Amino acid sequence: THSRRLLGVQDGGGGRSLLPSRWKSSQPQLDPVDRSDEEGGGDIDWDNLGFGLTPTDYMYVMRCTQEEGGFSRGELARYGNIELSPSSGVLNYGQGLFEGLKAYRRADGPGYTLFRPEENARRMQHGAGRMCMPSPSVEQFVHAVKQTVLANKRWVPPQGKGALYLRPLLIGSGAILGLAPAPEYTFMIYAAPVGTYFKEGMAAINLLVEEEIHRAMPGGTGGVKTISNYAPVLKAQMDARSKGFADVLYLDSVHKRYVEEASSCNLFVVKGGAVATPATAGTILPGVTRRSIIELARDSGYQVEERLVSIDDLISADEVFCTGTAVGVTPVSTVRVQDRRRHAVEEAVHDSDVDPDGPGGGQERMDGCG
Ligand code: COI
């Protein structure tokens, strides 16, 4: 069949891949039967997906060596662990990027819909330039995404229950010891069925403004989707979660007064019919959903501003929401600022009713932003 040809599967059993054995999975051992033509993801509870990793059947792998000078031919392989040199560029120096995009079951018949995959391809190309890596062409990227969806189609959730999340990775897989770009790169895509990202489901979330830990700095890599932007915010995110907040809102690292984005998504504020979001001037991730919302809002007649968004803009907003591939469009219910007095003083805004040392342990909670 078509998808069996796509997979390079030549027998009914093992799903033979043309990949070198070093890319074959050592573990986990998944169902060895090729089920790429089947529908239905086994025992999966489609109503309670959340955003966890459900291993699927196949991943896509494409390599690029110094001699080849570019990415040539990729292959589908069984999903599983990969072999990597201990001295690979990604493990030692964090030379890596990732992407996230979703495939949905179509409402109007068989087939799947991808949400703007070319945007992810272009963002990966841009990020690869920053991280000194070669990247797949837009055509290669989109082709690989489509192959990965088709090979894992039984894992695409039923309509309305979620999506198949695709996670493209571009890593410096070659061995290197001195600080330099790796001599070999690997592009991979794996897939997992997902539902809502936050445990709150579709309900509004509470955010905590982080005053000490910053996500990005001018001249840094905040504007590209490098893997190294994410582990450094885990501490802030875990602390916030332990206090009952869904995510953290980061401030700019220079003035410490402009909101940038959350750990997992971009931010929008709405005031008097005008929509504002932090401008992508190097420290904000240019989200595909962010761009789509800007375009949709402008097409619907809203005034949309990409600009600095201060804590005060946030506090006085009529509505606040977050956007991202994983989170979709998530309304924000409350935002807590630990030291609102400092921000109020810095912004020369008279705000006499806030006492940071008063009840609530020096914290001020602002409800009604949603
Ligand atoms: C996505 O929305 O796809 C992301 O990459 C965010 C990630 C933290 C889940």
Brief synopsis:
The protein is of the alpha+beta class. It has 8 helices and 16 strands.
Question: What would you note in describing this structure?
Answer:
The chain has helices spanning 2-7, 89-93, 117-130, 138-151, 234-242, 288-299, 311-315, 340-346, and strands at 58-65, 75-78, 96-98, 101-105, 112-114, 163-172, 184-194, 205-210, 247-251, 259-262, 266-271, 274-278, 303-307, 319-324, 328-337, 364-366. It is α+β, with helices and mostly antiparallel strands. Helices cover 19% and strands 25% of the residues. Strands 8, 9, 10, 11, 12, 13, 14, 15 and 16 form a nine-stranded mixed sheet that branches. The protein has two domains: 31-195, 2-Layer Sandwich (D-amino Acid Aminotransferase, Chain A, domain 1); 205-348, Alpha-Beta Barrel (D-amino Acid Aminotransferase, Chain A, domain 2). The protein binds 2-OXO-4-methylpentanoic acid. Residues 100, 264, 324-326 line the site of 2-OXO-4-methylpentanoic acid.
Secondary-structure topology with pairs:
Elements: H1 2-7, E1 58-65, E2 75-78, H2 89-93, E3 96-98, E4 101-105, E5 112-114, H3 117-130, H4 138-151, E6 163-172, E7 184-194, E8 205-210, H5 234-242, E9 247-251, E10 259-262, E11 266-271, E12 274-278, H6 288-299, E13 303-307, H7 311-315, E14 319-324, E15 328-337, H8 340-346, E16 364-366
Parallel strand pairs: 8-9, 8-15, 12-13
Antiparallel strand pairs: 1-2, 1-7, 3-6, 4-5, 4-6, 6-7, 9-10, 11-12, 11-14, 14-15, 15-16
Helix pairs in contact: 3-4
2-OXO-4-methylpentanoic acid is lined by residues 100, 264, 324-326.
